Amino acid sequence: MNFWTYAAFFIISLGASIIGAICGIGGGVIVKPTLDVFNVASVSTISFLSGCMVLSMSCYSVIKGMISKEQKVDMKTDTPLALGAVVGGVAGKQLFDIVKSASSNPNRVGAVQAICLGIITVGTLLYTVFKDKIPSKNVKNIAVCVVLGLVLGIMSSFLGIGGGPINLVVLYYFFSMETKKAANSSLYIILFSQLASLLVTLFTGKVPEFEPLALVVMVVGGILGGIIGRSINKKISSKTVSKLFIGLMGIIILICVYNAIRFMA
Asked: pLDDT of 40-58, one tens digit each?
């Protein structure tokens, strides 16, 4: 990799983490498909680097929020969701390895990821646009929370996006959370699912080949993005966050379509 490649890694990670911290989507939903477009590394490597970046950003955002007491964890919902996400993070990583080994073409898993992410993002966009017309729930059952966290963790880990937009939809619909509360809870869930996924990767010895400097650049970009994003989030309204989120979903859908076509060619 040359200087400009590392610069691109940093800029993409920084920008994605800023938006991720504002909207509560982790940033991986932007980084993963964007780096796939540039084809700078294998699908496995990009998923791993993206996951590490998301973990660093969410870790900073959650810890900073707790220290400053700006983020309160709801033990009845957030923690069961996070515990389910831990199991889901492990399962999602195993699912990724199964899909990868099932095909002799390493790009096939990239195509599967792009298609799944595209479908999820379309559904998320439609729900977000019409959510005011859709009655939401107020789930309190701990077992249901764990199951929902499990599903979120699987998708987060398998897609290498950290959680992304589907987290917010689940939090909006099942828990009637307002935008900023959902963003904070989403980052809390992402932290646990990505940590579980990373630990499985390390303990099973399935860390893909990667440039150490690329990892450092992305982690630094992720943390700086988390700092900037948190600052912006405090200054803008929930309505503005929702508009940013909707615009982002449209861009991600287009990128997913492009990646699916490219990987399947």
From this structure: 888 889 888 988 888 888 8
Cβ density class 220-242: b for 16+ within 10 Å, e for less = bbbbbbbbbbbeebeeeeeeebb
Q: CA-CA distance, 255 to 155, in Å (whole number)?
A: 18
How far apart CA 27 and CA 25 sit, in angstroms, is 6
Written as one letter, the residue type at 69 is K
Q: Which run of H or of E encompasses 166?
A: helix 165-175
What is the DSSP-derived secondary structure letter of residue 141? -
- Distances in Å between the Cα of 241 and the Cα atoms of 110, 164, 165, 179, 228 are 29, 14, 13, 7, 15
pTM, two decimals, is 0.82
What is the number of other CB atoms lying within 10 angstroms of the CB of residue 244? 15
- Specify the residue for token string 């992305």: 218
pLDDT in tens, 241-250: 888 888 888 9
Q: Give the separation between CA 205 and CA 215, rounded to whole angstroms.
A: 17
pLDDT-based confidence at residue 26 (cuts at 50, 70, 90): low
- Can you tell me whether residue 65 is helix, strand or coil? helix
CB neighbour list of residue 56: distance below 8 Å, 6 or more residues apart: 219, 222, 223, 226
Contacts of 11 (CB under 8 A, 6+ apart): 221
- CA dist 121 and 137 (Å) reads 21
